[in-house]
Amino acid sequence: MASRSILAQAARAAFLAAALVVAAATASSAATDFRARVTWEPSWGSIGYRIYVKPGAADWDAGTDVGMPPLQGDGTMAWTVVWTLAGVPIGGDVAFRVTGYDAAGVESNPSNVITVDEASILAAVTPVDLSLDATRWVRVAGTGTFATESVAPVDDLPAEALRLATDRVPSTLFGVGTPTTASLGSDRSQVSFSFAAPTGGSFMMRAVVQDTRGRHRKVAWVSGAGIAYVERNVPTFPVGDGLATGAVASFTRDLSADVRIGLGSDFELLDQVQVFGALDLRRVRLQLDGAGGFTSDPPGTSAEAPTTGWRSNTKTNVVQGLDDPDLGRETIEATLVAGQAAPRIQYPAKGSVKMIAPFKQLKIPTRGFEEFSVEVQLLLEDGTRYRMTFATAIDDATRTVTRSQAKLPMPTPVDVPGSPWDALVLRCATEFAALQQNPATQGIVPTSAYAGMQRLTLRGGFWIGPVAFEERVR
User: Fold this and answer.
1) Whether residue 381 sits in one domain with residue 242
2) Domain check: are 246 and 319 in the same one?
3) How far is the C-alpha of 474 from the C-alpha of 472, rounded, in Å?
4) What are φ and ψ of residue 431, in 5° steps?
5) 200: exposed, middle or buried (Cβ count in 10 Å: 0-12, 13-18, 19+)
6) Per the structure, how many domains does the chain have?
7) How do residues 408-441 score in pLDDT, each as one tens digit?
8) Range(s) of the domain holding residue 37
9) What is the CATH number of the domain that holds 234?
10) pTM > 0.90: yes or no
């Protein structure tokens, strides 16, 4: 067990920063919910941490045990502090400090103190959530129609929807944006979309944001292949789970994380939300990171590379769109043929537009494969790329590893009870971290941290269903 003095020394040097996220007015005008993001470096020997708050001239509170939050990509820990102040004005700045404790409950000396000034707190009094009005949209590209129409309410979704229509989706790009003129000026870090998608339709959501340098940038989320882009080389993410055609569905994205991973900069403000394709948009809701209260940040949802979003090697035998009743989804089948090059498919379909999926691992449903490889082009936090290949065989038949920087054996598929399908789990972030710890096995490995995936390439003989991205990079 670590001594108290060692813990104290580590904690004193470990605390990094506290960042104001928002101070939000509650139903009572005499009370204000205040939120701040606290980050710190983990201290050696600690099995948990406590965060202390000192508002204004008041004493330090009793502290809140936050346990062991998961490590972020930069190796720090973070927690969103939420509490209610008795009234405003606060009477001074708000201070934070962190302690660690060991297995015996011995608490370290407190870290250095970080403060947020009172003026910044009071200036940030805004609603926690913001739903965009269905009537403030304007055409941004293409030909088609859009209007606000009455629809049957579903659960808590409103009875109004923004209905976009075009007879050539996705061949003709058609999109609208909100607001019509002025910037939203919203610092909300999560975006939630509720929508009804047409059968077989493809669509894209896009956010126009400002980074901390004041630059206007774009990130996009795509439901499937084939959407024509207004601008190329915009970081593009898959929409995610829960996607339905002809029925109300929704997805939520961590905007600040997507901007950091896709653009390599920090998110500041959301200027505009844009929608392309044909669908009924029920609601666009902007939320704060950690808006659920003084709890651990919610885990990221999974996302999906559907079977319709791949580009195939047309000179060899690749069949897309087979409907398999056991899986309940469409599948892709590729067969090795003697004397022919191995079939190959690549996601995303558009080679000039790169998917960036900020998730740690892949789960591929499969009904068996022959010589088979999955190449994952990784994105690192410094913006560089690294190719990692998982393969059943390394030979000329599959041509799997000629350009790969890391060559790894294919893991054994996990049996799915009651189904002929198996689950193939590729732990990309874990394998990359292991390579960094032992570079002698694979040559020079970058020192930058793992950020996500940019492109998938499958070669050989295989039968797969939609590929799922899992465990969001925090």
Assistant:
1) no
2) no
3) 6
4) -65, -40
5) exposed
6) 3
7) 889 999 888 888 999 999 999 999 988 888 766 6
8) 4-123
9) 2.60.120.260
10) no
